[in-house]
């Protein structure tokens, strides 16, 4: 068996700086690399002894230009199982569709951090994950940034939305915790759009995309000459967002010294640029996101207790997709409607069998991974509706009708009428499921839910109370 440290990555790129950055990150993660600058050299390398050891390819679209799909198809013909990640400055979904049909496993829009490139490479080559089916595609389709676009009726998810909607109307700091891909950034944008600061400045910074040396300057700014390479004054994000909102993703990636400095800024409401002897009064709201539980990091001494206390006055826990399997049907249809709007794609339905298969999977990449899988299936299907056959590698990972998975399949496909013992479920349980399904389908618009169910709004709210159903309307 090939050892992890022997994995070889070919980088096809004329940009030496970009190629070196990706190669350095790959080396840190146990990869060896070979770099080529043109299509001819790439094809030639595939036929060499070294080329036969390749585990993945990173291709910058600027190398073959308009012939990128031809190059991808040629490489896939020679090495069908080799994952190919395409880097491009073109944001057109049509190029993505054409590249994926040619054989690309993923595409990433530049500028992109080397860490993100390697995340895609690792996802496409990870053992135990089906290649070319569950590769973690980045979010190419821009979603609306409001609460109406947050799809789901699962109680834990609706509770998270309720807390977020209430917090959005205030000015306090908020900590949003949840696994990668659960929709934290989308929730941040919805909160910003619904806040009193909606018309103020807004910036979202992913700390994971910044080097340790650049973080302080990006947040606090710097004076000319503050450090080597500081040739001009720079205003930091905290000052630029005065009167508005600064969203910080991967807040746990801040160095401890930066955490303490940020806590001081929050306490004093004054930011001092690096190298400056003066400061600026600011009124900047901070929305922080984290993939892990910050409380545990505080207890381990890895995160500032002062900063945690300031950020967690309101804490929102976004549940993983595996805990809201009943939302998969509504999410899938929502994503397919978005995908249909992209050039080169069309409106597709999805069968109950396909929904049941999707509901039986655990989704380690959460909602983002579901969107990626649907995007890929929509690219390659020839039918008018996605069926379970459009997810062949996913099918190989799911054992149908096994324990709770079977129950999740039935729930997600619609409303389950029968219990596992073969008897009909109580009417109260079925009614509760129908109401939850309607809330998710109509995105929490309770007037529409009541109208479609043929009952009055007051009757609906009485049933919500009687059945113990939470909502965020």
TrEMBL record:
Keyword Cytoplasm annotated: yes
Main subcellular localisation: cytoplasm
CDD domains xref list: AAA, REC
Keywords recorded for this protein, A-Z: Activator, ATP-binding, Cytoplasm, DNA-binding, Nucleotide-binding, Phosphoprotein, Repressor, Transcription, Transcription regulation, Two-component regulatory system
UniProt xrefs under Pfam families: AAA_lid_14, HTH_8, Response_reg, Sigma54_activat
Residue numbers carrying 4-aspartylphosphate: 60
Ranges of residues in domain Sigma-54 factor interaction: 150-379
Ribosomal protein found in the keyword field: no
Role summary: Member of the two-component regulatory system NtrB/NtrC, which controls expression of the nitrogen-regulated (ntr) genes in response to nitrogen limitation. Phosphorylated NtrC binds directly to DNA and stimulates the formation of open promoter-sigma54-RNA polymerase complexes.
This protein's name: DNA-binding transcriptional regulator NtrC
């Amino acid at each position: 068996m090939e050892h992890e440290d022997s994995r070889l990555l070919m980088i096809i790129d004329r940009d030496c700086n970009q190629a070196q950055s990706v190669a350095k990150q790959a080396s840190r993660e146990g990869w060896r690399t070979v770099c080529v600058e043109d299509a001819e050299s790439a094809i030639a390398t595939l036929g060499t002894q070294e080329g036969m050891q390749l585990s993945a390819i990173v291709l910058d679209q600027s190398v073959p230009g308009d012939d990128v799909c031809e190059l991808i198809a040629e490489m896939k013909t020679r090495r069908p199982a080799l994952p190919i990640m395409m880097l491009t400055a073109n944001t057109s979904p049509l190029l993505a569709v054409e590249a994926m049909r040619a054989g690309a496993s993923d595409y990433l829009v530049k500028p992109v951090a080397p860490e993100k490139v390697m995340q895609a490479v690792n996802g496409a080559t990870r053992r135990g994950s089906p290649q070319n089916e569950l590769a973690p595609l980045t979010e190419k389709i821009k979603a609306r940034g409001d609460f109406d676009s947050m799809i789901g009726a699962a109680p834990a998810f609706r509770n998270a939305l309720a807390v977020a909607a209430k917090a959005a109307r205030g000015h306090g700091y908020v900590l949003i915790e949840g696994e990668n891909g659960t929709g934290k950034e989308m929730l941040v944008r919805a909160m910003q759009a619904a806040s009193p600061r909606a018309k103020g400045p807004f910036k979202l910074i992913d700390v994971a995309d910044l080097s340790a040396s650049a973080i302080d300057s990006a947040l606090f700014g710097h004076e000319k000459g503050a450090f080597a390479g500081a040739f001009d004054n720079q205003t930091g994000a905290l000052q630029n967002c005065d009167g508005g909102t600064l969203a910080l993703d991967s807040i746990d990636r801040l160095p401890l010294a930066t955490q303490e400095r940020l806590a001081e800024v929050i306490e004093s409401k004054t930011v001092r640029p690096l190298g400056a002897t003066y400061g600026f009064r600011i009124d900047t709201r901070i929305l922080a996101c984290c993939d892990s539980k910050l409380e545990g990091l505080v207890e381990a001494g890895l995160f500032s207790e002062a900063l945690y206390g300031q950020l967690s006055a309101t804490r929102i826990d976004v549940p993983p997709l595996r805990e809201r399997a009943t939302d998969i049907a509504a999410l899938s249809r929502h994503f397919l409607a978005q995908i249909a709007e992209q050039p080169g794609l069309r409106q597709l339905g999805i069968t109950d069998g396909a929904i049941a298969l999707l509901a039986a999977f655990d989704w380690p990449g959460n909602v983002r991974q579901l969107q990626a899988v649907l995007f890929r299936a929509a690219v390659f299907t020839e039918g008018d509706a996605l069926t379970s056959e459009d997810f062949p590698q996913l099918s190989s990972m799911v054992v149908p009708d096994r324990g709770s998975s079977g129950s999740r399949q039935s729930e997600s496909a619609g409303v389950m009428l029968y219990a596992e013992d073969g008897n009909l479920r109580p009417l109260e349980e079925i009614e509760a499921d129908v109401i939850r399904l309607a809330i998710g389908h109509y995105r929490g618009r309770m007037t529409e839910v009541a109208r479609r169910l043929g009952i009055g709004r007051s009757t609906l709210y009485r049933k919500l109370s009687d059945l113990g159903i939470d909502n965020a309307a």
